[in-house]
Design brief:
With about 425 residues, the chain is an alpha/beta fold. It has one domain: FAD/NAD(P)-binding domain (3-Layer(bba) Sandwich), CATH 3.50.50.60. About 30% of the residues lie in helices and about 20% in strands. The protein is built from 10 helices and 18 strands. Helix 1 runs parallel beside helix 5, helix 1 runs parallel beside helix 9 and helix 2 packs across helix 3. It is globular. The structure holds flavin-adenine dinucleotide (FAD). Flavin-adenine dinucleotide binds next to helix 1, strand 12 and strand 16.
């Protein structure tokens, strides 16, 4: 029987704080995911009295539901970044994306966080020959800005990395890694608690209002007065708490399945490179071996609007079989969903509105970036006059049609289906050419 809860949550400890939250603090952080906990840790290390509130059990959000792929990416190409922000910012975006990977890897290694960190590398697989050329060009431009460990894999060398004829080569990011995300979250939580942070689950912030020179947060039973507030709610942002952020961050669901145990030999035969895999197609799949090496995890945007994990299961299963036909009769042990937070600029942002700080908009790339930007947001709160990150210069945008509820997502799904159709057409033409005598 498939379980509709995250595979990562199996046999993991659940932190609960049975105390009543205090009525005063220096800083309140709303959201206890990677962003909120990392920010809280930095604030506490600087001597601040910090309270973290989460509306659900601690570890409910995307931080423990993700694919555990630790990478440096963001979703904007150098060309687009140059067009919208200029060459300097485009260069800094690339350098800080690399910096976020180094930051989170060091956080894990320096603090000995036991989260099954593996130096797996990540292979971005080309869905069309055009994707392969575009990736090669993008890699060349980025290497000129700041070199990093990545190399193109030619189509005929792909069998060393993956056992499927589906892709037209790829780009291997050798410095990328993978983790068990729930364990990373728990390790970060322990660090924050050890630094004196008070963390409370099942304590939704209902409102954040100015009071005196600071703010008053109302929760279900009480209120907390504080000097500073950080919203770290990403894809779970609610408009009743922040209309400003809900208008600027779109909740987009992602869905994941994990196979039953296949055994190390079969997983190794299908994924000989042992990498995290991410496709270039519009509605891409991402997949990897689980830390035990005996199962395969696959994620995809089964829909752009919220459907149940049970509805997503056959869609994800068909994607897995498309990649690995030999898994046709394999059962899925787990299937779940979670919300990513998309910004309209496709870049994350740290900033403030009416004195309330925020760090969010990771667009599905937050395992390295969210702990990093949580830390940077805390530095901003400690030293507001200084600039700490280029992501202060990627302001959140709003759209006239978006008021918090993404009612237009079914239409967006249709648009992406059309783009997929176009890509598949290009792909078929390329396949026909290679087969021509
Ligand atoms: C299925 C899935 C797969 C993903 N895979 C990857 C991957 O492989 N690699 C990668 O880099 N990224 C991945 N991501 C993205 C990554 O997980 C996120 O970007 C990151 O975890 C965001 O962390 P966060 O702390 O900002 O938000 P979250 O971890 O989502 O935490 C936000 C928290 O805010 C709380 N909250 C909301 N409103 C309130 C309120 N009013 N009061 C109190 N608390 C509130 C929520 O309960 C939630 O716990 C994936 C995401 C999903 C959903």
């Amino acid at each position: 029987m498939t379980q509709f809860t995250p595979y990562w949550w199996q046999n993991q400890p659940q932190y609960r704080n049975t105390e009543v939250p205090p009525t005063k603090a220096d800083c309140v952080v709303v959201g206890a995911g990677f962003t909120g906990l990392s920010a809280a840790l930095t604030l506490a290390q600087a001597g601040r009295d910090v309270v973290v509130l989460d509306s659900q059990a601690i570890g409910f959000g995307a931080s423990t539901r993700n694919g555990g792929m630790l990478g440096s990416g963001h979703k904007v190409s150098v060309a687009d970044a140059k067009k919208h922000y200029g060459s300097d910012i485009a260069a800094q975006l690339h350098c800080e994306a690399n910096g976020s990977l180094d930051f989170t890897k060091s956080l894990i290694i320096d603090h000995k966080i036991n989260c099954d960190l593996q130096a797996s590398g990540r292979l971005r697989t080309a869905w069309t020959p055009q994707d392969y050329s575009a990736m090669a060009q993008a890699n060349r431009s980025l290497q000129k800005i700041e070199p990093f460990a990545a190399r193109m894999i030619k189509p005929n060398a792909m069998t060393e990395h993956i056992n499927t004829p589906l892709y037209f080569g790829g780009l291997l990011y050798e410095g990328h890694a993978c983790v068990q995300p729930r364990k990373l979250h728990y390790g970060l939580l322990q660090l924050a608690l050890d630094a004196g942070v008070k963390v409370f689950g099942d304590q939704p912030a209902h409102s954040v209002k100015p009071r005196g020179s600071g703010f008053c947060i109302t929760t279900k039973n009480q209120s907390i007065d504080c000097e500073q507030v950080l919203m770290a709610t990403n894809g779970y942002t609610q408009s009743r708490v922040s209309k400003f952020l809900a208008r600027r961050v779109l909740p987009v669901p992602s869905f994941i399945i994990v196979t039953e145990e296949l055994g190390k030999d079969q997983v190794q035969a299908l994924l000989p490179g042992g990498h995290c895999m991410v496709e270039t197609r519009q509605r891409f799949c991402y997949y990897r071996p689980t830390p035990c090496g005996k199962r395969i995890m696959l994620g995809a945007r089964a829909a752009l609007h919220a459907i149940t994990p049970a509805q997503s299961l056959p869609i994800l299963q068909s994607k897995l079989i498309e990649i690995f036909p030999s898994l046709k009769n394999t059962k899925m042990s787990h299937c779940w969903t979670g919300f990513t937070g998309f910004s309209f600029s496709k870049l994350p942002n740290i900033g403030s509105n009416n004195g309330i700080f925020h760090a969010l908009g990771y667009c599905g790339n937050g395992v390295a970036m969210a702990p990093y930007l949580g830390h940077k947001a805390a530095l901003k709160m400690l030293h507001p006059q200084e600039q700490h990150s280029v992501f202060e210069q990627t302001p959140l945008q709003s759209r006239s049609y978006h008021h918090g509820s993404p009612w237009y997502m079914p239409a967006a799904s249709a648009w992406y289906q059309t783009k997929d159709w176009w890509d598949n057409r290009q792909r078929q033409q390329a396949l026909n050419q290679t087969r021509r005598p």
